[in-house]
């Protein structure tokens, strides 16, 4: 009977264990889900508040501009008699204000709604001659008030926000009315581009629930909900969105995980494979509402992780309980065994003494062996410690040797140039041409400064640079590198071809490091074309979106296919012994990687090697407000 009771208790225990496991994992998953949702909701609220404030600040900083331009004497004088005046001075004035304020367009409209002057007068889709009397910003301003409007441009088909102000020729009379309207258009693409970098989807809807702005281009100019025929006709009458179809965005609410939040999904499109936590924030100043969608994938991951951790902890607790029960059972058995031993102690005393003596001898022998093993292990640990110190010293010597080799390679070209300039200066002094000699001496001073800067950069080669990247002019870097090699280019008869746009190309980088890389690439190209009959060096700059590609191409023998995979390895070189250490391309690749870019090598279609540097594009020091010098004064 006791055996049957114990069997039933064990069966009940085995039944309750998996139930407890399921319950623990379920409760842990629920708790983790609530905590993850709360954290995700707080992050979404903070991002939504900051994004809304950024949008309001971006738009509101231009609201003063129409009033400022409307008060200009040139604007009033032209509006008084537009038929008898040349509009070009006013067009240029508006274009200068447009460039300075960083807006899209500025234009002047007369009292009938016809555009008289515009900053885009030189473009095919100019506003001049267009009538905008139907726009609400014109109607508000001609009534004497400041106007605000958002929508698609009639000519440009670009989404923008419009500010308008009345232009008064006589604002002293009580019954005076405006004689024209000054309008400023601000584009929204730049702000949307910054949204795309966030780990969330941002939408801005108007009072008609039309998505006017979105971090995803596929969601722009779409309706949150399908529009009825009357609603679509009403929107077409306003011409706010021109003739855009305004198709539904495919958004559907799948649940409500908490107060003031929604669970959102997409029936189609690029976001259809995920669920999102949706929050909204009204923008009463513009009549808009901003929405943020945060992916619920982290919440699901937190649920699974908490469930697995709870299951593991439950298993540990069950295992600990089993071990405790087993130890209790063993303790009871020991007590029973001790009782039996006491009963037989009198009969087995002699045998026990013999066993104690035998075991004592065994213990002495065992202690002796253990002492020997301990001493042997101590000696092994001492040898291991010495070996480790030797390995550390060897690693330090290897790094020191690599750094010394890198410094020797990087200073070789400036030293050669210093020698050439010194020889030229001596020749000029012999001919009493002091100005030319002074110029060569100035180049030597500049190259010594460059050598100091290169050695300072090489000291930082093994770790990230601490300097903040600045706006760097790529053509200026090319100019410096070509000046460094001008004697070699002239002596070898190398034809230099420059292929870049007329406007200045800027990148976000470190000036000294980028020039160092270009000097390495051009020097390698000159060495590769040493046996070419008509050497030709092609230098190219190609802006592409948010990046700039910088190319150095020669017409030498090119790079063997077997060497393309190893060309950036340290100490790998195909040059003859004594011509190089094989560190130039390795150092150059490391520098470009530290600057947030990449360096690639291949063979040009027409023959020869082609090296391509890709770096983040920069709008320039004036646009970014970077007051630090873009280049060194020695070769600006």
UniProtKB/TrEMBL annotation:
Its main location: membrane. InterPro entries: HATPase_C_sf, HATPase_dom, His_kinase_dom, HisK_dim/P_dom, HisK_dim/P_sf, Sensor-like_sf, Sig_transdc_His_kin-like_C, Sig_transdc_His_kinase_DctB. Keywords: ATP-binding, Cell membrane, Coiled coil, Kinase, Membrane, Nucleotide-binding, Phosphoprotein, Transferase, Transmembrane, Transmembrane helix, Two-component regulatory system. Its EC number is 2.7.13.3. It is a multi-pass membrane protein. It catalyses: ATP + protein L-histidine = ADP + protein N-phospho-L-histidine. Residues 335-397 form a coiled coil. It comes from the Bacteria. The chain crosses the membrane at residues 304-325. GO terms for molecular function: ATP binding. SMART domains: HATPase_c, HisKA. It is an enzyme of class 2 (transferase). Gene3D superfamilies: 1.10.287.130, 6.10.250.3020, Histidine kinase-like ATPase, C-terminal domain (3.30.565.10), PAS domain (3.30.450.20). It is found in: Cell membrane. Residues 406-619 form the Histidine kinase domain. Residues 614-636 are annotated as: Disordered. Residues 625-636 have a biased composition (Basic and acidic residues). PANTHER family: C4-DICARBOXYLATE TRANSPORT SENSOR PROTEIN DCTB (PTHR43065:SF46), SENSOR HISTIDINE KINASE (PTHR43065). This is histidine kinase. It comes from Halomonas rhizosphaerae.
């Amino acid at each position: 009977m006791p055996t049957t009771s114990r069997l039933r208790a064990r069966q009940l225990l085995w039944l309750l264990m998996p139930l407890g496991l399921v319950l623990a994992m379920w409760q842990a998953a629920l708790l983790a889900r609530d905590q993850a949702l709360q954290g995700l909701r707080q992050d979404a609220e903070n991002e939504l508040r900051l994004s809304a404030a950024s949008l309001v600040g971006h738009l509101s900083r231009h609201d003063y501009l129409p009033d400022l331009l409307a008060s200009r004497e040139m604007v009033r004088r032209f509006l008084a008699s537009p038929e008898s005046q040349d509009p070009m001075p006013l067009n240029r004035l508006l274009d200068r204000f447009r460039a300075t304020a960083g807006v899209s367009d500025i234009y002047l409209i007369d009292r009938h709604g016809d555009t008289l002057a515009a900053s885009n007068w030189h473009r095919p889709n100019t506003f001049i001659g267009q009538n905008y009397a139907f726009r609400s910003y014109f109607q508000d301003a001609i009534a004497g008030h400041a106007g605000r409007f958002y929508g698609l441009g009639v000519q440009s088909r670009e989404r923008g926000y419009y500010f308008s102000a009345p232009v008064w020729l006589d604002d002293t009379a009580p019954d005076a009315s405006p004689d024209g309207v000054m309008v400023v258009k601000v584009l929204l693409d730049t702000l949307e581009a910054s949204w795309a970098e966030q780990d969330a989807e941002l939408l801005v809807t108007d009072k008609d629930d039309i998505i006017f702005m979105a971090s995803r281009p596929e969601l722009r100019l779409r309706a949150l909900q399908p529009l009825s025929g009357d609603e679509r006709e009403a929107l077409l009458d306003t011409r706010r969105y021109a003739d855009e179809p305004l198709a539904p965005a495919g958004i559907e609410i799948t649940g409500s995980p908490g107060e003031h939040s929604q669970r959102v999904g997409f029936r189609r499109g690029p976001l259809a494979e995920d669920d999102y936590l949706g929050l909204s924030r009204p923008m009463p100043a513009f009549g808009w509402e901003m929405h943020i969608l945060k992916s619920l994938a982290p919440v699901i991951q937190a649920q699974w992780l908490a469930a697995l951790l709870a299951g593991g902890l439950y298993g540990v607790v069950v295992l600990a309980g089993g071990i405790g029960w087993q130890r209790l059972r063993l303790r009871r058995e020991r007590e029973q065994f001790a009782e039996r031993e006491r009963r037989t102690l009198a009969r087995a005393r002699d045998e026990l003494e013999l066993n104690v003596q035998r075991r004592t001898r065994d213990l002495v022998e065992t202690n002796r062996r253990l002492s020997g093993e301990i001493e042997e292990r101590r000696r092994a640990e001492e040898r291991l410690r010495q070996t480790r110190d030797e390995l550390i010293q060897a690693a330090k010597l290897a790094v020191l040797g690599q750094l010394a080799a890198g410094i020797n390679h990087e200073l070789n070209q400036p030293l050669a140039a210093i020698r050439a300039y010194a020889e030229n200066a001596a020749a000029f002094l012999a001919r009493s041409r002091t100005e030319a000699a002074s110029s060569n001496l100035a180049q030597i001073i500049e190259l010594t400064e460059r050598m100091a800067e290169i050695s300072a950069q090489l000291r930082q080669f093994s770790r990230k640079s601490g300097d903040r990247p600045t706006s760097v002019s790529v053509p200026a870097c090319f100019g410096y590198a070509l000046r460094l090699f001008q004697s070699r280019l002239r002596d070898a008869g190398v034809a230099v071809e420059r292929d870049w746009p007329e406007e200045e190309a800027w990148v976000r980088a470190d000036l000294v490091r980028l020039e160092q890389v270009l000097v390495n690439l051009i020097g390698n190209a000159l060495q590769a074309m040493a046996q070419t009959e008509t050497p030709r060096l092609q230098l190219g700059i190609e802006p592409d979106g948010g990046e700039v590609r910088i190319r150095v191409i020669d017409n030498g023998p090119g790079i063997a296919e077997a060497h393309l995979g190893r060309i950036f390895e340290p100490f790998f070189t195909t040059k003859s012994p004594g011509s190089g250490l094989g560190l130039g391309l390795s150092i150059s690749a490391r520098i470009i990687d530290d600057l947030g870019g990449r360096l690639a090598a291949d063979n040009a279609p027409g023959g020869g090697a082609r090296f391509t540097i890709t770096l983040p594009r920069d709008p320039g020091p004036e646009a970014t407000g970077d007051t630090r010098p873009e280049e060194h004064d020695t070769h600006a």
